[in-house]
Model the fold of this input.
Amino acid sequence: MKWEENIRRVVPYVAGEQPNKPNMIKLNTNECPYPPAPGVAKLASEMDSNALRLYPDPNTTPLVKALAEYYHVRQEQVFVGVGSDDVLSMAFLTFFNSDKPILFPDVTYSFYDVWADLYRIPYKTCALDENWHIRPEDYGQPNGGVIFPNPNAPTGVFESLKTVEEIVRENRDVVVIVDEAYVDFGGESALSLLDKYDNLLIVQTFSKSRSMAGLRIGFCIGNEKLLGYLNDVKFSINSYTMNLPAQLLGVEAVRDDSYFKSVTAKIAATRERVKGELKELGFSFPDSKANFIFASHGTIPAEQIFLALREADIYVRYWNKPRISNCLRITVGTDGQMDKLIGFLSEYVVKHH
Done:
């Protein structure tokens, strides 16, 4: 059809399955298995629905203020979006406008190449080494920007701040985005580098460690000039991107620091325990500092295990892609959920070994 000639065509990002079965164990989208902070539930039950007839604050001021206080930065250094995907998408649109390719790892968050294609941004992937680590020297080549997650997804591998700083320092003439969606489970944020580097943008999310994937809250922190350009793009697309409940409930999530820390510590402890149990069953994996484990079995193909788990209503993530087609990404759930997963795998491995 003639009208199709001028359509922008892209291959979209494919999210993890979102099944809805009563007794399923859902370990495929890195959601938090624990509820949001108690203050979130309390405020949600008391909210005045009459306020919904008005537009929300376009500057998301209450949430920006709470985040600035929590992370000890100025309000002008904080930008809030509808999930970190929204923040990242706008950052691609704002900062990656060179004719040179942007750089990111070959095994990484699979939305990066989708945004690059959507916005017609040239890109080049840099291969992780045999232990799934970034090679900083790969990022010394001419480029139009750099992005990588730390810890990485789907591997869970955390790069030291020394490595992060090396990449940022070598790329002072472009924007370097560090995607810290999983940093709260055992990594160290690059926030301490912000005063030194005006080309650094750090992106985080409420979806994992703050148990609020359903509300879609993401944010980034960087220098005021970067954030000014990002806001210009945001207000050129939609002034009112974040709804009122998300703004107010997000503040409550930030306020309860002790709850936040107890949840992340619990998940990290479960992760470490499960690593030992998976190892005993013949699985190997890089040392994850995220809320998931990227595991492959010594003799049984990943796809076979993935399908067997699915039959049992236990959902994990599998990609049939180069380098990772024999790996499963397993979200760390509650201790009870992980016991059921290990119970199933123990029997399955014995049967099929």
